[in-house]
Each structure stands twice: as structure tokens, then as C-alpha cells.
Write a structure and sequence with these properties.
The protein has about 300 residues and is α/β, with parallel strands linked by helices. Helix content is about 40%, strand content about 15%.
Length: about 300
């Protein structure tokens, strides 16, 4: 058996095309063009790359955007003052503070300072809490993108055993919530694992759906995967590669070749989950402009 590829680039373009059409219709009806405000703290090259991808996507779908680049010495007080100004600016629909933050800043405090009605990342406790109790909310973009892939490829979640490796607030935890929810897209029996899980293979080998978001290259190998499983590799890791012009290559958290021999479906890295995350960010920004989630916002 050799897995079929889940083409995130193709599905992301379909979503972006729909968002582009919706933005044109929204603006054509006399409404203001949606606006996404990005905040970057410091000069982390990974963050710069992500922001560039998000800015290009905004341009592609017709969403206006601006990036405020702050020094990595900015104080928590000053950063919160800036965010407070953005919260009160009716011209700004979405606010995105690019993570990770410098060590002296608390990501929890910064995320909580964003108006939950403009939290298009879906990280604010209000959005996470509403997600957990199955109320309308901005869904964290990576898990939301994965569910769009399931829908596009008709991958069933209901009654399956889903195992999530990685328990972050950004991917692992919201993914587990969405998989296990009692609604039309969930109803999986869900296990969540992390770096302290004993005998990880004992859990992954029983997964019908395996979502790996641990940030550790090559963590999951073919012998850890059930025959015919659906494998979603969220990891994006830089590893040294002397044959590459850049001196590195991007790999996932799965040992791709060996896992591909066992799985029925697999996401490549790059070109799998990454483009979907950006596409869902565009979708959330449009929802914020339309006030679709929080009409009284």
C-alpha cells in the first residue's frame, strides 16, 4: 500500500477563490474592504516568512492588511496599549500577533488583550471556550483547515479512533476538541498524546486518524502507524540539507517515506496543512468584517 496525497495547496486555493468572490460581493454591496492588522515583535526569520505568506494571501483575496513591526525589547505595557488602540479602531476587523513572542512577554496575556471579536487566530479564551461548548466562534486556523481537508476528500471522522500527538493551545488541544465534539463534523473517539506520553506507539498504532503536531522531525515512523490510517502531519521543521541552496529543507513530524507505505492518506510537508492554515485565516478575517460570528461586535 502507498498513501494518496492530500493536496493542501489545491484545497487552499479553492477556499481562497471562494473568499475572493465573497470579498468582491461584500465590497460590491457598498461595504468597506476587510482589514487585517498584523503585529510582529522582533525579527525571527520564521515569523517573517509566515507574515509574508499571510500578507500575500490577503492581497490575493482582496483583504487590506498592515504590519506593525515592533522591536523585541517592546514592553508588555506598550504592546497592550497598541493592541487596545487596535481593538477600538472600527476600521480593523482582525488582529493577529505573530507567535512566538520574546521570553519577557506572556503569550497568554497578549492573546487575552485582543478583543475576542477580532481574534481571527481563534486563540482567545472566549473563542476557545465557545469552541469547547459547540457555540459559534473563530476556530483555530490549523484545525479548521484540517477539517476542510477531511470534508474535501470525504474522510469520515464519526466513530473513528483519532489520535492527536501534541497538546498545544494552537493545534493539538483545539483539534482534539473538534474531533470529539457531538456535532455533524466530530463524534470521533479521541486520544491526545504529548511528549510525556509513555509508549507512544501503543496509542498511535490504533489510530484510524493520526494528527501529528509535536514539532519534532521524524517522530512518527511507519511501524507506529496502523495500516490504512489517515495521517495529518502538521509539523514544519527545518533540517540541514547541504544539497539545498538555502542549506536546509522542510520536513514534517512524520518519517514521510515509511509512513506513506502504511497510510491510506497523508499530507505532504510542505504543501499539506500549511496553505490551509493561511486560507482559513483569510476566511476568519472575512467573517470578522461581516460580524458573522459576533453580530453585536
Amino acid at each position: 500500500m502507498s498513501a494518496k496525497l492530500i493536496d493542501g495547496k489545491k484545497v487552499a486555493e479553492l477556499i481562497r477563490s471562494q473568499v475572493r468572490d465573497d470579498v468582491n460581493e461584500w465590497v460590491g454591496s457598498g461595504n468597506r474592504r476587510p482589514f487585517l492588522q498584523v503585529v510582529q515583535i522582533g525579527t525571527d526569520p520564521g515569523s517573517t516568512t509566515y507574515i509574508r505568506a499571510k500578507t500575500r494571501a490577503c492581497e490575493d483575496v482582496g483583504i487590506n492588511t498592515g504590519t506593525n513591526r515592533l522591536p523585541d525589547t517592546v514592553s508588555a505595557k506598550e504592546l497592550k496599549r497598541i493592541i487596545r488602540d487596535y481593538n477600538q479602531n472600527d476600521e480593523m476587523d482582525g488582529i493577529l500577533v505573530q507567535l512566538p513572542l520574546p521570553n519577557h512577554l506572556s503569550s497568554h496575556d497578549v492573546i487575552e488583550s485582543i478583543d475576542y471579536r477580532k481574534d481571527i487566530d481563534g486563540f482567545h479564551p472566549m473563542n476557545v471556550g465557545r469552541l469547547a461548548v459547540d457555540q459559534p466562534s473563530y476556530r483555530s486556523c490549523t484545525p479548521a483547515g484540517i477539517f476542510e481537508l477531511f470534508r474535501h476528500y470525504s474522510i469520515q471522522v464519526k466513530s473513528k479512533h483519532a489520535v492527536v500527538v501534541g497538546a498545544s493551545n494552537i493545534v493539538g488541544s483545539p483539534m482534539a476538541i473538534m474531533l470529539s465534539r457531538e456535532n455533524s463534523t466530530g463524534k470521533a473517539t479521541t486520544t491526545i498524546c504529548h511528549k510525556f506520553t509513555r509508549d507512544l506507539t501503543q496509542h498511535t498504532i490504533s489510530a484510524d486518524i493520526l494528527v501529528v503536531a509535536a514539532g519534532q522531525p521524524g517522530l512518527i515512523k511507519g511501524e507506529m502507524v496502523k495500516e490504512g490510517a489517515v495521517v495529518i502531519d502538521v509539523g514544519i521543521n527545518r533540517v540541514a540539507d547541504e544539497t539545498s541552496k538555502k542549506g536546509y529543507k522542510l520536513v514534517g513530524d512524520c518519517e514521510f517515506e515509511s509512513v506513506m507505505e502504511k497510510a491510506s492518506w497523508i499530507t505532504p510537508v510542505p504543501g499539506g496543512v500549511g496553505p490551509m492554515t493561511v486560507a482559513m485565516l483569510m476566511k476568519n478575517t472575512l467573517l470578522a468584517a461581516k460580524k458573522s460570528i459576533y453580530p453585536d461586535g
